[in-house]
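=== RUN LOG ===
request id: a7f3
mode: sequence -> structure
chains: 1
length: 81
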Amino acid sequence: MKNNLHSKWLLQEDTPEAEMLFEKGIIRRKVSTKVAASLLGITPNALRIRKSRGLIKAVRDGDKELRFYLSDIIRLQNKEA
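=== RESULT ===
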């Protein structure tokens, strides 16, 4: 089952140019662990396990919270579908 993760709220601007940049991967939108897990339909812990296995990359937002790039979430979702 493939979800359409490309929603208007994912773009910083609601313009054709912003949409094109997002689709080409130029805009690298980051989301929290909770949001990323929800988009994938898994628990936050399951997402952290995938990260530890090298299936998805994450970055630290400041010193604490992990953030995941939306493009990586879409890629993982398509791979697991």
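=== NOTES ===
The first strand starts at residue 30 and ends at 32.
The chain has one domain: 8-80.
=== END ===
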